[in-house]
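User: Show me sequence and structure for the first protein, then do the same for the second.

Assistant: Starting with the first protein.
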Amino acid sequence: MTITNLMQLPSGSDLRALFERPAAETGFFLTVEDRAGIEHLLRNSAARHAPNPPLLNEFLRHKLRISRGAPEPASPELVVAGCHVTYMISGEGSRSGVLTMSAAPAPGHILVASLLGATLIGMRKLQKSPLLREDGQIDIVVVLNVSAPPDHAAA
């Protein structure tokens, strides 16, 4: 299967069903630390600076509901806060950044308090998922690689 095939939505798909499938089908896994981090973001209104805070907050709550607990220690292929993730969004080239629970944007970081970050957390290498955009469009995101952040790679 090519990356191009991974990036296409099935024709006639029920988009709501794509987001509401149970964890056994979606395969999202959160570590205890990531679950606590998302709950902290929600308690402290970290999404208030997002383009659509109510949408992001509901998506984060939904992610908590549909995700299963990750075995500890987490697989090196699991997207967790603090990891460096390379991903591709349908119709675009590959990008990468460090996934962070911080509410403050920083160069090279992907905030969990964003629709992209909230989608990526809990995914695994080569997994694809619908990506809701702030403008209401839905794309597909696929995780291409997961690694320790560059400053921790030598440790």
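Switching to the second protein now.
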Amino acid sequence: MQESIQSCVFKNGWLGKREKKLFGRERKPDNPEEMRFGIAQERFTAQLKNPLPDAQWSGIITTIAHRAFESGMVEGVVTLHRSEENRFFSQPVLAMTTEEIDASRGNKPVLSPVLRSLQTAVRKKLKKILVIGAACHIHVLRDFQERFPYLQNMEIYTIGIPCVDNVQRNQFNWILERMSKSPGTACHMEFMQDFRIHIKHTDGTVEKVPFFSLPEELSNPGIFPESCMGCFDYLNSLSDITVGYLAAKLLPDQNRQWVMVRTEKGRKLLDLVNDELTRYPEEGKWECKKFILQNTERIISSMKEQKASYSPDRKIPVWVGHLLSWMLSMSGPKGIGFAHYSVDFHLIRHYYYVKYRCPEQLTVLVPRHVRSILQEYDLPL
């Protein structure tokens, strides 16, 4: 526990010197895509030619982990299983069989102690491992690798999951009940590019809930952990390879994912599955400044104002929410533009959350490029 606290990103800050050590440089200020998405050798969208059953998307992360283990590249995978208590809760595990790797499919949208299984790998004297985690896990791992000799002698590969808006574990069921008509059968959920929350159920059906029609009480920043509201590495910029969905085209009956190869180790991981992928270039228009500016006043106000209570009523009727979502999915940012919008939205929200609620952490947590992005919108620092 004490080691984790010493290496915690909320003690050491996001990115900065850590990014420079990994890549030999910081982000280029004249490259707006790199400023948002981090340093990468290659970016593209893709899906598996033969998607894995029960995977949240097509199963690229799980397949990479399979191939790394089967090829002998790694001896174990530090990852998460679903808790027996709740299918959305996590249980850290060192997966050392294909069956254990399979069982890690699907997101767990609560804070998760992934690196706890790192201790198991060390005790078992493994020399080659794969770690699958969110940005906060990868940041701590990078610090561990510098501080502890037993990790310096271990070959470690990392797959980064984009991560934001995890919720307090003790509030998750309360939140799900306010989102879904059938919370007991929900098995996957994600805020998608059509401005709806997609909730997949155990019978295979997908419930789509307009973001605009959620109860006002779900807009309370207090339902999210302070650590997540102070995150400035949405796209897991210190991983060897990041696999998410933000810039992928949303199409019926397809589950395209967004892949960012960041390091040579990431290239090796991608090579394991290259022949199994159908690849597509990034699509969409980059510019979304006007769309962002329409929301900034509301974002800043909601971070500054700490309301005593939030209404349990929906913001707007569901049918109106579906209409708004459809209109925005037609006229709003798509592909690379949606990724641009989503990253900037969260950077702005989190900057003002820290500024107004944890001002003493502002200089510690905020990377230099975030302030540059705020200045693009002429927002006060």
